[in-house]
Each structure stands twice: as structure tokens, then as C-alpha cells.
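Example 3.2
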Amino acid sequence: MDPLAAGGRSYTVSQITFLIRDLLEQEFFNVTVEGEISNFRPSSTGHLYFSLKDEEAILSVVMFKNRLGGLGFQPADGLKVKATGSISVYAKRGNYQLICETLVRSGEGEILAMLERRKQKLAALGLFDPQRKKPLPLFPARVAVVTSPTGAAIRDILRVLKRRNAGLDLLILPAPVQGEGAAEIIARRIRTANDFSLADVLIVARGGGSLEDLLPFSEESVVYAIAESRIPVISAVGHEIDFTLADFAADARAPTPSAAAELVSASRVELARSIGSLHQGLCDALLGRLEKARLRLEQLRPEDLERQLRYCLQPHLLGLDEARQGLSEALAERLRDRRHRLELLSEALAAASPLAILARGYAVVTHQRTGRTLLSPAPVKPEDLLDIRLARGGLTAAVKEKRP
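Structure, written as C-alpha cells:
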């Protein structure tokens, strides 16, 4: 039901407030409001609270901490900005406010869109490819800086170089860092440094500023000059949150001019500390290896060698003794088994021997003429001679009579 059509109905304060909030959030979602910042007050929790105003009205705005990552400038009273977000109602106070998602300075939206189009164009030409990046020299003898000779950037660079490495040669190539014609002069200075091989590394620098102030370092002429430079180029434009297209084309980006000076100047104190650390590490390694060698040499003394040989041979000798004992016991067992079996066979053979039968009083009678063992008197005739085998000796007998 349309809440506005419920005429004459009674509401609680909460009900009418929530109805208004629902209407505003549905109708004013993802809107952009332009105005001047006033009453700017960041909270201790990191959120930003301020108002947008023009000649006739004022609007409360809150920008939460998690939305500040893409904020490219420091908001302040009096700045004209464009805030994009959704209208909501803060029920406890009964006032409406803009929940800001993005905040840009007035005019910056068009500039950012233009820079994004230019960035896509130059990237498609391969000017930002990582394969084009050149390594920075570890110990450059001369550094050239393209910047304003009176700006804060060169003072920061000089201060860092004096502190870290006073012996480094510094060449200043003066150029305006903002305004009309600045980009052409910056590009010309970069090409001059390359034409005459004026330095081992080149810094393109300026201090912080608005998006419009930094535009010369995003011009195509400067990007082409940096990309074509044979000398490694460090881009050190603005503050850490600022960016220009020169950052993408350069071989390295420094968040500030001071950081660029840190990159190109090896601190004498740090070098001495590193050398001392390497020297100590080398000495420790050599001493460690010598100690290991000494311990190994000690292990080569005759008594140590004999002891180690015994340690090595002892398990094998014990194994040999155990094998010999096992073999001896196995052979003895087999001999006992074979002896027992021989005794059993001998007893069986003796029991089955005819001589054993004869020893019990029996005799073996054979026909002398035929040699056949007689089992009955049938083949014998009277007067035939018979051989009689006894247990001990034998007889020859003549047949006198046959009995069936």
C-alpha cells in the first residue's frame, strides 16, 4: 500500500520516520550531489562527517572509514566537491543525510575519466608493459633530476642525498612542474638526458598538489619520453596517494621525492654495516669449517681409527658368530635325525633278513642240480642231493624218502 495514500491514519514517530526513510532510500539511491564542504569534522574512529551546501540549502554527509581508500585528496571546508551515495534517514535525530560512497573534487570526475581513457590507449600500445622495465643501478655515479629548481621536491632530494651519500653527483634539469607548456619541457629534459648520456638514473619529481596540478605528468609527450628513455627512470610525483600516467611508464615509482632519493643513494652507514655483517658472517663460516675440519682430524688418530673399526666390525662379527652357531646347531640336528632314521632302517632291514630267520632255527633247502629253493618235496626224487643252508654253515644231504 502506498504510505502517502493512508490519509487520516495515526502513526508513531518511529513508523512515520521509517516510512520516510524507505521512500528516500528507494527514490534517491546512487545519486551525486555537488556542493561546498562545510563543518568538516573527522571522527576518532576514522569516519568523516561534514555538510554540503550551496546558496540556498545544506545537506549532512557521512563517509565511513572503509570508503576512504580511493580518496585522492584531503577534504577541507570551502572545497567544492561531488559526493556520490544514497540518501538515508538517521532515525534517532530525525534528519536525513547522504551516505557517501565516493568523493571527488568538482571537475575531477571529467579529468579522471579522461585520464582513464588515455591510460587505456597508452597501455594498449605496450608503454606500461613490465617487460619494458629496466633495473635500477645499485651504485649510480650520477643522478639527474627533472624538476623545478625552486620546489620542495629538489630540497627533499638534496637533504636525503646529503645524509646518505654526499659523494653522489647530482644534475638538476630544470623544468616547470605545472601549468601550460610544462609537459613539453619535462619531455624535452628527459630526451636531453638520454641524448647526452647525462646520468646513470633519472628522477622525474615534484611535490604534492591537486589533480589539475599533476596533469603535466600524465600528458602523452611525457609518457612517451619516459617509455623511450634508455636511462632508467624513477617517477616521484606527488604524495603516496597521488598517481600519474608517468608512474606506469617509469621503471620504478617512488611515493615521494625523498623516497626516490633513498632508492638511488646507498647509505654509507648502511653499506658499512652491510660490509661488517658480511665480514662477520664470512669469519664465522670459516671458523665453523675449520672447527669441523679439526674435529674430523681428531677422529683420524690411530686409537680412534681402531675404535671406530671395532665399532664397525663388532655388529658383523656378532652376526657371523650367530650364523656359525646356528649352522652348527642345524647340522647337528640333521645328523641326529639321519642317525635315528638309519637306526630305524637297520632294525627294519635286520628284521626282514633271511639270516635273522635262520638264526631262529629255520633252514633254506635248495635242489643241488637245479639250484631252486624247495618249498615242497614234489620236485625231488629219491637219491637227489640237497643243499641245506643253516644259520651257521650248511649241509649236503641225499633224499631217502619223500613225505607229502
